[in-house]
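Troubleshooting log. The previous structure file for this entry was overwritten by mistake, so regenerating from the original sequence record. Sequence copied from the archived sheet and checked twice against the printout by T.R.
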Amino acid sequence: MSTLLVHSQEGTPIHLTTEPQLDGWLSENAQAAKSFVLSTRQEGQNVLLIPDLTSGALSSVVCVVDSLDDQWLAGDLAKQLPQGVYQFIGDEALIERAATSYILGAYKYSAYKKTAPIQAKLAISAPELYKKVADITAGIYLVRDLVNTPAADMMPQHLAETFIELSEQFGGEFKQFIGDELLEHNYPTIHMVGRASDNKPRLLDLTWGDESAPKLTLVGKGVCFDSGGLDLKPAAGMRNMKKDMGGAAHVLGLAHMIMAANLPVRLRVLVPAVENAVSKNAFRPGDVIVTRKGITVEIDNTDAEGRLVLCDALAEAQAEQPDLLIDFATLTGACRIALGTELPGFYSTDQQIANDIIAEGLELNDPVWQLPLFDQYKALFKSDIADIANCGSTPFGGSITAALYLKEFVEPETTPWLHFDVMAWNVRHLPGRPVGGEGLGLRATFSYLQKRFG
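Regenerated output below.
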């Protein structure tokens, strides 16, 4: 959780207003404050620091925004205020939006580079609202930290440490299968993809909550670095592949929100964690693997490894027939081509759930976009010597064919399934969303889960 968020009733007030409403706000305040603003405000200035004209101390802040309904209305504010403790003035919904954007905008990744810390803390007095904002932002911070960490310090064993920390913090149970243990317990594709690395592949497994509660299972792609394998990526394509474990980061951030909120579910989090490296024992194009589910897969391209590690984890998840199964993965460039980097695509075998999550995304300005499970494209990953190939025969519809591949390993007749194909990275600065690792669609998904299970 951000150290900038404090539970307190004390703080310099921040008044949020729009330009048309500013005159009305000024008329309701002391003549001295009105005169100060009118005489000192420069054109385009949107953050107004109003002093006590007797003592000279800061008495209040006025922040002029485009819309009070904007989720990101205070996303750049933390970096514009002097040292102190502040609190937003308004109704609970406005304070929640402003506080969430404020804390998310204050995020800095400083593990390897010293930067001047932000000194403007934010106070929330209402206990429930404070906890809600703290839990949501802590989950997003966790995602960002995991994705931003260089691959050398975020390999499968490091992801396991995060699992252990979460299980200890919230009273969960953690187990893992490492290296050749994956073969002993029938997770052959996870082992195959990760065996070329000195960082042994793992299946990470966290459970939490009442065993009699509805079962919610999260699966995240944990490719800690993706060289492309023998089908080697070019330098430009490899540069940011530390983020290829972004799906794992997403489910860990979401799990943090769920457990912190004590949602009444039986939660299970599965992450197949590997490094897709190049070595003498790397898997090859043309190899055939018998997956955990028994489906044989011909390797058409070793750079389509994410779906390979996910298929064993999904098969394991499906074995328990959870009430809801959700996976997150930085799976395809095709989804980025279709939707860009800031709009995550998702697939669903249950249209009502899809509609509900879309609605939550629109309400929270955390949009997600549904893509079709167009079964006609299943023929594109046909193999002459195995049940299926691991990627399509054409680059067209690449995100859809990847989702259809994963669908082979779940049972939508018994378990609703959602698959998110996310970027996990901000390529440009936006209010509340600095460049770097990002949790996309998580606030929408968590809000849906709260309403469904809470």
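The mean pLDDT is 95. Archived copy saved in two places this time.
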